[in-house]
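Appendix C: a fully annotated inverse folding record. The material below is reproduced so that readers can follow the format used throughout the book. The structure is listed first as tokens, followed by the designed sequence.
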């Protein structure tokens, strides 16, 4: 009996030793398993590839019965040497750029208006004619918004600088919007498409004339290029707004529906963060600097006082839709608030 008890004690002690030894191993294995569970997913997340693309470049707002879609064409830096102002103002711009290198970054845009009966494009972006590859995304933004270039019925051009209408035509002379009728002010068309005026222009300006003729050519050949005079009606609910100074026939378009208005303002402002605070500052692209400044000084107070919704082709943010507020001797830009329920705004 003593031998049995002794054997049982030895067996029990052995079992405890085995369990103790195995428990240490089990605990170690458990910790390793837990560590792999915790570290594994984090390691997998850390090794996931980064995505550099953004959401599609469009944004819609409702203006009465109109669906207005802002179309992203690209982003580029605006050279401070392209601005003309007093020394004090330009010194402030240089200092501002030192503190914020993105201060003069400009988003270029076009706009699509669905009236329920027609698709109207206001400006067509740069295509491959301007911007060195930084621009030219408008047609892609249009498709992302659910439309195709073939569906566009009318194109309204604010002016014939290639960053506003280069998107009409490919480099090999094909129409991007084959079914669209194109409208532009007669003074604008007569100036930029004139071989005689081009021949007298400074050498560094002549490429603007050359690209304008190349971009317009396939639409002229197809009988789809229309030059209008004065404020004659083009589309129901659209008022032509003369905006002199930037180019000979620089034009804005004001759409009205159910008492609501939106102004497509063309190039009355290039660098928002400078020219809204200093409306007297002009751009080297303004053919008549004095008239361009006068147009801005006349128009901005009206837009701010009437709380007009503005669609600007050159903005500091996207979407390029907003209103003006008087701020000291200048103005501030109040962008629309992003919402995914655009039809209820």
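Designed amino acids, in order:
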């Amino acid at each position: 009996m003593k031998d049995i008890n002794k054997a049982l004690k030895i067996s029990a002690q052995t079992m405890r030793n085995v369990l103790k030894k195995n428990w240490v191993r089990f605990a170690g294995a458990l910790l390793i398993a837990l560590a792999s569970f915790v570290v594994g997913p984090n390691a997998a997340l850390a090794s996931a590839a980064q995505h550099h693309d953004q959401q599609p470049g469009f944004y819609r707002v409702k203006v009465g019965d109109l669906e207005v879609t802002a179309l992203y064409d690209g982003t580029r830096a605006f050279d401070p040497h392209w601005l003309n102002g007093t020394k004090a103002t330009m010194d402030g711009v240089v200092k501002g750029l030192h503190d914020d290198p993105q201060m003069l970054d400009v988003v270029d845009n076009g706009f699509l208006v669905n009236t329920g009966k027609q698709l109207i494009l206001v400006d067509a972006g740069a295509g491959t004619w301007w911007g060195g590859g930084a621009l030219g995304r408008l047609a892609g933004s249009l498709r992302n918004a659910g439309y195709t270039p073939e569906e566009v019925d009318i194109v309204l051009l604010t002016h014939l600088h290639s960053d506003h209408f280069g998107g009409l035509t490919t480099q090999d002379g094909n129409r991007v919007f084959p079914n669209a009728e194109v409208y532009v002010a007669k003074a604008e068309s007569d100036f930029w498409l004139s071989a005689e005026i081009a021949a007298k222009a400074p050498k560094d300006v002549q490429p603007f004339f050359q690209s304008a003729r190349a971009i317009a050519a396939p639409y002229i050949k197809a009988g789809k290029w229309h030059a209008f005079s004065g404020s004659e009606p083009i589309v129901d609910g659209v008022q032509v707004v003369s905006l002199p100074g930037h180019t000979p026939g620089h034009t804005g378009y004001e759409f009205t529906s159910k008492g609501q208005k939106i102004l497509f303002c063309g190039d009355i402002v290039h660098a928002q963060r400078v020219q809204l605070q200093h409306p007297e500052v002009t751009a080297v692209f303004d053919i008549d600097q004095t008239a361009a400044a006068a147009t801005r000084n006349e128009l901005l107070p009206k837009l701010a006082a009437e709380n007009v919704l503005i669609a600007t082709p050159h903005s500091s943010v996207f979407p390029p839709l907003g209103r003006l507020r008087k701020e000291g001797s200048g103005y501030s830009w109040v962008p629309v608030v992003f919402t995914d329920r655009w039809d209820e705004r």
